[in-house]
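@channel sequence for tomorrow's demo:
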Amino acid sequence: MNADSPEFRTPGQLIEALLREKGWTRAVLGLVLGVDETSAGKLVAGKRAVDAELALTLEEIFGVPAERFLELQKSYDLAKARLAARPDPDRATRAQIFGGLPIADMIKRGWIVAESVRDPNVQPELMRFFGVNRLEDIEALPHAAKKTQVSAEATPAQIAWLYRVKQLASEMLVARYSDDALRQAIGKFSAFLSAAEEARKVPRLLMEAGVRFVIVETLPSAKIDGVCFWLDDRSPVIGMTLRFDRIDNFWFVLRHECEHILRGHGRAAVMLDTDLSREGAGTGPNVPEEERVANEAAANFCVPKTKLHAFIARKAPLFYDADIRGFAKTIGVHPGLVAGQLRHAMQQYTRFGDYLVKMRSIVVPNAIADGWGNVVPTG
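structure tokens (generated this afternoon):
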């Protein structure tokens, strides 16, 4: 007899066939196994499961590998479970939400009100946060409608951060936006570049130009530098993370997002900018056109490219402190901006760190800022 025959669907069917082959009754099987006839009958009828120990005993008796009995038992158990299982259409959604969204961080940051990820209040709070009536409509899920139309494929953490920016920006009161007002604000920014402390005026000037400026601390693994989008196609929003607390990164990201606004970017699709401290700040042929022009404007704003290249040509490979500070003074910017552009131009991101002063403590107190222990209340 072939014990591997597909006709056997349960261990009991195989045992029954083996009994017939040997001419044994169930009573005989019970005697061999050291159990009563009723127990042996339950084994043949599939009412007693075959475990590893029993499988080894059956192998000894019938000469059939124990693995075969266990394989049949596993298949039988799974088939019974499938028949008894009740499909839960929400289970897959919960798996995507709790497995993808940084819920623990969202609770910690005060974005959703719950004691822990196991709190029953988590699900209604998530629906409130994302502005939906059903869990499956949360935009961070793969199948949900993309209301924000993020320009690149965003991670759940990035989408959660983006919604927090949108939430805060929606409640701000700002002047009516105009391109001319933003250009005038950018012109004033140029006068701030030589002294880090002057950046404290940025939030007010952007509000006066009609730009909703929000700073939201990034979430772990999100790697966001900034974002640009529009509310109701009339009011532009700039969100920044300040994840790199450096003067060069602050001004580069800010000017980058301002350029997006001036060119009307972010109306059709949210411009979510990541890694603007390195490869994302490039202007090569593989960089999307919208990002290329924004990077170009930001770099020239910090340090005019022609002047930077001329400085590098004169001083490379040795850049002395007097050279950097003298060049910065000549073009009217902080030495940290020169240092930042040198790092990028030369692809040497560990150099000139002493010039890169911190900006968070200067800008955050004057802006709508969420994070670093502060939670902005929302309606």
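heads up for whoever presents: The domain at 11-84 is CATH 1.10.260.40 (434 Repressor (Amino-terminal Domain)).
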